[in-house]
Amino acid sequence: MGGAFKIGRFSGIDVRVHWTFFLLLAYFAFIGYRASGSLLGALTDTVTIVALFICVLLHEFGHSLVAQRLGLEILSITLLPLGGVSNLESLPEKPSDEVKITLAGPLVNVVLAPIFFGVGLLLGAVPRMPTDLFTGIGSVGQFFFYLGYLNVVLAVFNLIPAFPLDGGRVLRALLAIRLGALRATDISSRVGQLFAAAFFLIGLLGGNFLLALVALFIFFGATGEAQMVRQQETTRGLSVSEVMGTKSRTETVTPYHTFGQVLDSVIHGYQEDFPVVEDGHLVGMITREEIMAAAHSPERYSSVRELMKTNVPTISSQADLFEEALPILQQSGLRALPVTEKGELVGMLTIEDVGQASLLRRLPREVSRIGNRTTSQETASR
Ligand SMILES: [Zn+2]
N or C, where is the chain less crowded by C-beta within 10 Å? Predict the structure, then answer.
């Protein structure tokens, strides 16, 4: 992410802060100073925001450390004025993994809240919320009590099922078990957009512009991630039959074809590799290599049978394109593989077919998780 710089590293994960975060600190310091008329007031605010973002960071580490244990690579965690973002190299494949990773974040806040409440009470806090963040935190005990409250808010707000908030991710994962990732993402991002529209209206009508801003982030986050998943899913599980050249478009030869006939096909057609079929069964393949070598050979080959490769790997039309067919194609050293169904030739899969499919498959390298975009909204609303 541009404009962010590294402040540390833990468990192999870079922690980064976006420069706009310091605008937020300066803003709250200014508000605190104006409200209290003292530098102490400015400092209290700044310290509160920093403490809140440490909780946000711990929340993100909750996600990231569980993701790491499940074998996913975490690139970095970035703190933004509206919350934290964990950059995962890829999204979890299994819905149950996504649930575990997602719930680990709010769980951190659920654990932190009673700890802060306890510390606050031990330090003599009165169990009530400050009426005003900027002048209301009168003691260190009260500060900790307030942090406990902020952690409750972090947990609750993030669990709202407004995708891509954590609650929305859990919703998607649960839907995905029955409906598949694609429909689950469509539905949960629609729900997220509805929440976002409601937050936006409430924020606008209530004069809470930060809530309106958070709503925009949820809205575009939901839209963007739905698009990404759609792209990912449309090429996942692509089978050979979906991209291969079908039999009607594949020129075949028999073992009895003469060398001259095959040479003629290479010169006048687009195809360079020909499956050899005898009595409806695939018996071999003759490739451009053999044809060209034979053309320059002093020996006089008369038929395809003398030239064809017989130990040619084949691939089933139902095989997964990237998982199964591509490795076989690469190992064979061939530019094309005959595709069969029950021993019968049904088409040809070429390197070009795979290349075109992988163009569709290309994904952005960084997948951003929009975690708790809500954190500063809460403090700003009082
Ligand atoms: Zn989260």
Answer: C
Does residue 155 share a domain with residue 131?
yes
Same domain, 193 and 249: no
Distance from the alpha carbon of residue 159 to the mean position of ligand 1, in angstroms: 8
Strands 336-341 and 315-316: parallel
Same domain for 247 and 277:
yes
Q: What is the Å distance from ligand 1's center to 231 Cα?
A: 24
Please identify, among 217, 236, 255, the residue that sits at the C-terminal boundary of a domain: 236
Residue 142's nearest CA partner among 161, 155, 129, 160 is 129
How far apart are the CA of 318 and the centre of ligand 1, in A? Answer: 39
Token pair of 343 as six digits: 């021993």
CA–CA separation, 171 and 223 (whole Å):
16
Nearest to 3 by CA among 11, 12, 13, 16: 16
Is 366 part of any domain?
no
Alpha helices (runs of H) in 239-374, residue ranges in sequence order: 240-243, 259-268, 288-295, 304-307, 326-332, 351-361
Q: Tell me, yes or no, whether 307 and 286 share the same domain.
A: yes
Distance 327 CA to ligand 1 centre (A): 37
pLDDT of 235 reads 62
Mean pLDDT computed over 264-275: 85
Q: Return the higher-pLDDT residue of 8 and 369.
A: 8
Please state the pTM of the whole predicted model: 0.63
Q: Which tens digits make up the pLDDT trace of 116-168?
A: 999 999 998 887 776 666 666 778 888 899 899 999 999 999 999 998 899 99
Token pair of 323, please?
Answer: 């998982």
Give me ligand 1 centre to Cα 105, in Å: 5
Q: Write the CA distances from 54 to 150, 196, 214, integer angstroms.
A: 12, 26, 20
Neighbour count for residue 54 (Cβ, 10 Å): 13
**Angle made by CA atoms 233, 234, 240, in degrees to the nearest 5:** 115
User: How far away, in angstroms, is 152 Cα from ligand 1 center?
Assistant: 13
d(CA 300, CA 302) in angstroms, rounded, equals 6
**CA 250 – ligand 1 centroid, Å:** 52
Note whether 118 and 50 are same-domain residues: yes
Same domain, 330 and 279: yes
